[in-house]
Amino acid sequence: MTAVAVASLHDRAAADALAHAEDPYKALIERVGSARVVLIGEASHGTHEFYRERAEITQRLIEQKGFAAVAVEADWPDALRVNRYVTGTSDDADAADALAGFRRFPTWMWRNADVLDFVGWLRDFNELRERRSRVGFYGLDLYSLQTSIEAVIQYLERVDPPAAELARKHYSCFYEIADPPTTATRSPWV
């Protein structure tokens, strides 16, 4: 039997054990052990069941294993707005407002009931913690490359203009693949 076949049988046995455990979430979290990073994939986008399960697993990782960041397949600027809300540093009145930045297709990936509930839960969870110990929510997608670049440049222009110039220089490598700047701000290109 090949190593791949043995690994596959092992994975199936582990999945079967989880499915039949009294508390499958507890068994799953125990399998995480001391891992510092857990990647949660999904078989399809937009499936309520996957979103619900992902939120439950993520909540348990935060509560039981002390995870301090949620990194999602989402545009960085839109997720930053959610991060500000869940960490108590935004003016958004509620989770729905915090998720309103997600306007690019597919909006349903982030502006749905399961994510809304999770973002509300994370805000409540964080309110009980000191500011420096709050769990963050971060987007890692580059679909909004130009918007992300503009957000970084605008921030740096306010706090560190020389760093903004350096960032412009480094971002110039994206000139051929990024859309032209979409705001009235100074172009990020050198």
Annotate the secondary structure layout.
Blueprint: H1 3-19, H2 24-32, H3 48-65, E1 69-75, H4 76-86, H5 95-98, H6 113-127, E2 136-141, H7 145-159, H8 161-171
Parallel strand pairs: 1-2
Tell me what the structure shows.
The protein has helices at residues 3-19, 24-32, 48-65, 76-86, 95-98, 113-127, 145-159, 161-171; strands at 69-75, 136-141. With 190 residues, it is mainly alpha-helical. It folds into two domains: 34-142, no CATH class; 144-190, no CATH class. The protein has a two-stranded parallel ribbon with strand order 1-2. Helix 2 (24-32) packs across helix 3 (48-65), helix 3 (48-65) packs parallel to helix 6 (113-127) and helix 7 (145-159) runs antiparallel to helix 8 (161-171). The chain starts with a helix and ends in a 19-residue tail after the last helix. The model is unreliable at 3-8 and 182-190 (pLDDT under 50).
